[in-house]
Design a protein that fits this description.
Number of helices: 8
Helix content: 40-55%
Oligomer: single chain
Number of domains: 1
Strand order of the largest sheet: 2-1-3-5-4
Shape: globular
Structural class: alpha+beta
Length: 255
């Protein structure tokens, strides 16, 4: 019995792949041209001043692509590919650095996670979490990545005016409800449709009438992630000793 012959030869398939690659390149050229027009618009209206990052827009884009990818494209590969494109587009709008402390830079798994998400961006290494956040306060366009369980909450609660906050969490694709890493920045939070509000408090917070998604620790402080883009009035209803750490898109659940 002889095996069935393939419909096309290997060379035919390779030529098809080359043609697809050429088409992808043309689409990338169009995409980066469009990103350049976005940059020009932001410079005109002044919206690029605080940060070129738009976490809500990026989250909505990735959710749409993940929902439409079909079964042949792995979810993690799609996210890595688009993170390269998004990072390049962000850096074209304005140069920025990622402030990272020794707890992350010394952990191979976390280092890879940060490097993949912020592909090609410059790292500035710091000895501890506080140093990373203090440096971030000085540079409005930059970002800082900290471990959820690092001692950042005590420092943040001591700030008279919180010029920075959590703008994103990692990983992008949910591995569990509680994130591993928090991304701090200066960008004004915008709702993405699937968001969570991160609060810090000296005592555990109740689930109350809102959806408490997860709770963790940052030193002696409790960190709580509530579902939704909570209003200040909702936060005030939880008590007087509660501080807003940030509002950001939730990690994406892939089924």
């Amino acid at each position: 019995m002889t095996a069935d012959k393939p419909d096309t030869s290997l060379e035919d398939i390779r030529r098809e792949i080359d043609a697809i690659d050429d088409g992808l390149l043309q689409l990338l050229v169009r995409r980066f041209d469009a990103s350049a027009r976005v940059r020009a618009t932001k410079k005109t209206d002044g919206s690029i001043a605080s940060s070129p990052l738009r976490p809500a827009r990026e989250a909505m884009m990735l959710r749409r692509l993940l929902a439409a990818r079909g079964e042949s494209v792995p979810a993690d590969a799609l996210v890595r590919l688009w993170r390269v494109i998004l990072s390049a587009s962000t850096q074209a709008q304005a140069p920025l650095a990622i402030h990272v402390d020794a707890r992350i830079s010394g952990d191979p798994g976390l280092s890879v996670r940060v490097a993949e998400h912020f592909s090609g961006m410059t790292w500035q290494l710091h000895p501890d979490t506080r140093s990373s956040l203090v440096e971030l306060m000085k540079k409005s366009g930059d970002l800082a990545v900290v471990k959820l369980d690092s001692p950042w909450a005590s420092w943040l609660s001591s700030q008279q005016a919180q010029a920075i906050g959590v703008v994103a969490t990692l990983p992008v694709i949910a591995e569990r409800k509680m994130p591993d890493l928090l991304v701090f920045g200066h960008a004004d939070p915008q709702p993405s449709g699937q968001d969570e509000t991160i609060l810090i408090s000296p005592d555990p917070l109740p689930a109350s009438k809102m959806q408490l998604r997860w709770q963790g620790q940052s030193g002696d402080w409790h960190v709580s992630g509530y579902g939704g883009f909570l209003a200040n009035s909702d936060i005030q209803g939880l008590g007087g000793n509660v501080f807003l750490a940030g509002r950001c898109p939730t990690s994406i659940e892939v089924f």
